[in-house]
Amino acid sequence: MSWRIGLALLEAAMLPAAVRADAVTFEYIGIGCATAISAGGPVVAGNTAGDYETFRWTEETGILPLGRASVPVLGRGAGIPDISSDGTRVSGTILGADSSYITQGLWTEGEGWIETMPPLPPDGGLIGEAYGSAWDLSEVGNAVVGRNGSTARGSPSSGSTGRRRCSRIPTSSPRPASSRPTGRSSPARTSIP
Predict the structure, then answer these.
(1) How far apart are CA 118 and CA 103, in angstroms?
(2) Residue 143 is part of which domain span?
(3) Are 45 and 65 spatial neighbours (Cβ–Cβ below 8 Å)?
(4) In terms of Cα–Cα distance, which of 120, 179, 131, 119 is closest to 155?
(5) Residue 75 falls within a domain, yes or no?
(6) Closest to 90 measured CA to CA, from 132, 57, 59, 60
(7) Tens digit of each residue's pLDDT (9 = 90 or more) over 4-13
(8) CA–CA gap between residue 187 and residue 193 (Å, rounded)
(9) What pLDDT, in 10s, does the model give residues 72-87?
């Protein structure tokens, strides 16, 4: 049993009986790991078991693999899928168009995947088959946040304005190897109109 399931069961057991019976339910959605839930919970994003392909789940469709999984092709992946509050956009680390690299991607319902890198920030580059990896998505789904390959020490923060433009974002941390704006790790943020 995974630690997440064990923790969920422990939390459910600690709730008063009246609350457990009326308010808390768990539903098995299939083979995979849910990593994000849309507002209100009707849409879930995550990774499938084994090949870590990004998926989108609804009660109507069940698990819908979104394609471009990098693990079966390159033997590696990174990041964690996220979902917009309305459930129409999913971010993830995806296999590049020519299947030779991984990069940040944004999937939109009715449109499919777009790569948000390249282009890269000025000091960005391909580091060991990776341009970048996706770790977060803004609430409205127009900004993907993650790590980017860099020729500088660590993976610096970066961001963009407009479709598929990526540039450096300053971090609040004095540590150059940090990859989040908070200084814990260094994101690459790409805004999509």
Answers:
(1) 8
(2) 68-191
(3) no
(4) 179
(5) yes
(6) 57
(7) 444 444 455 5
(8) 19
(9) 999 998 999 999 999 9
β 158-159/167-168 pair status: antiparallel
Inside any domain, residue 32: no
Q: Which amino acid is at 124?
A: G
Q: Note the pTM of the prediction, 2 decimals.
A: 0.70
For residue 149, which amino acid is it?
A: G
Decide: 163 and 193 in contact? Cβ < 8 Å. Answer: yes
**Lookup: tokens for 7:** 């923790």
> Three-state SS for 87?
coil
Is it true that the peptide bond before 119 is cis, omega within 30 degrees of 0? Answer: yes
- The verdict on residue 25 lying in a domain is no
* Burial per residue of 95-119, b for 16 or more beta-carbon CB atoms within 10 angstroms, e otherwise: bbeeeebbbbbbbeeeeebbbbbbe
Q: Tell me whether residue 164 is in a domain.
A: yes
Cβ-based burial of 141 (10 A; exposed 0-12, middle 13-18, buried ≥19): buried
The count of domains in the chain is 1
Strand partners, 90: 83, 107
Residue 89 and residue 106 in contact, taking contact as beta carbons nearer than 8 Å:
yes
Identify whether 176 is preceded by a cis peptide bond (ω within 30 of 0): no
Pairwise CA distance, residues 69 & 44, whole Å: 18
The whole-angstrom separation of Cα 140 and Cα 8 is 28
Coil, strand or helix at 69: coil
| Amino acid residing at 18 | A
Element (H, E) at 43: strand 43-48
